[in-house]
TrEMBL record:
Its EC number is 2.1.1.197. Converts the free carboxyl group of a malonyl-thioester to its methyl ester by transfer of a methyl group from S-adenosyl-L-methionine (SAM). It allows to synthesize pimeloyl-ACP via the fatty acid synthetic pathway. It comes from the Bacteria. This is Malonyl-[acyl-carrier protein] O-methyltransferase. Belongs to the methyltransferase superfamily. The keyword Transferase applies. Pathway: Cofactor biosynthesis; biotin biosynthesis. HAMAP family: BioC (MF_00835). It holds the Pfam family Methyltransf_25. It catalyses: malonyl-[ACP] + S-adenosyl-L-methionine = malonyl-[ACP] methyl ester + S-adenosyl-L-homocysteine. One of its GO terms (biological process) is biotin biosynthetic process. NCBIfam families: BioC. GO terms for molecular function: carboxyl-O-methyltransferase activity; malonyl-CoA methyltransferase activity.
């Protein structure tokens, strides 16, 4: 369960440093847009909803690719909304500070798009259904998120540290993510989808990032506000964290840097009904 209040605090606190440290998210954004545009004509897109706009990297790309579209951009973080509004103060984009899981959508869209945000949802199936039902005929829901092998190195070090320190409490390195197959299954199994004409396409990509040490890697996560917002299973023991970092530096060093793997999932769902 994601603590949404903590999520707001983390992202707002790091909104001004986000662009400097969000290298993976920018790469995911480029892949997501290319995946979307592969068989899409920009003339078909008039109304766009962006979920989790952050500081506006995807927003800028949407403006470039769909200059005549009406864009509504939502983010849960007041700090992020403040930064992105300042960046696009001369645009007609409608920015809204809200949790997409807790608001009603009162209009339909030709494109609903989100980059690296859906992992923060507490009820993904219900939210996917709401978004799909807000698509116009031939509209597309396009999103990226993180897969189950994200930070597998860190998870391995957590497991080993738990064993070596004989810890009995249930703790984890962070969230559990879906496999691509699981995610596609969820998309295809949502209530109401059975009688709607839809197509779902997905792909996965692994993006490696390199850092001088595990400490630098963990710091980079905090700098984008993406540190653990789980309500349960947190561990703040200095002894345990030090053990994890030592194991990481010992076992995942490549050419004087440690590796951190991002498992990235990309989904397009199109409403084929007329």
């Amino acid at each position: 369960m994601i603590d949404k209040n903590q999520l707001k605090i983390h992202f707002s606190k790091n909104a001004k440093s986000y662009d400097k440290h969000s290298n993976v998210q920018r790469k995911m954004k480029d892949i997501l847009i290319n995946f979307l545009l592969k068989n899409l004509k920009s003339s078909t897109i008039k109304n766009i909803l962006e979920i989790g706009c952050g500081t506006g990297s995807l927003t800028k790309t949407l403006l470039e690719n769909f200059p005549n579209s009406n864009i509504t951009a939502i983010d849960i973080s007041p700090g992020m909304i403040e930064v992105v509004k300042d960046k696009f103060k001369n645009s007609s984009i409608n920015f809204i500070c809200a949790d997409i899981e807790n608001i009603n959508l009162n209009c339909n869209y030709d494109l609903i798009i989100s980059n690296a945000t859906f992992q923060w949802f507490n009820n993904l199936p219900k939210t996917l259904e709401k978004l799909y039902l807000s698509l116009n005929p031939n509209g597309i829901l396009s999103f990226s998120t993180f897969g189950n092998k994200t930070f597998y190195e860190l998870h391995e070090c957590f497991k080993k540290a738990i064993q070596e320190l004989h810890i009995k409490d249930s703790i984890s390195a962070g969230q559990s993510f879906y496999t691509l197959q699981n995610l596609i299954h969820i998309c295809n199994s949502i209530k109401n989808f059975s009688y709607m004409d839809m197509t779902t396409n997905g792909k996965e990509i692994y993006i490696p990032e390199y850092f001088p040490s595990c400490k630098d890697f963990l710091t980079s996560i905090k700098k984008v506000g993406a540190n653990n917002s789980n309500k349960n299973h947190r561990c703040t023991s200095p002894k345990f964290i030090k053990k994890v970092m030592n194991l990481y530096d010992e076992n995942f060093l490549i050419n004087d840097n440690v590796i951190a793997t991002y498992h990235c999932l990309f989904i397009n769902i199109q409403n084929k009904s007329n």
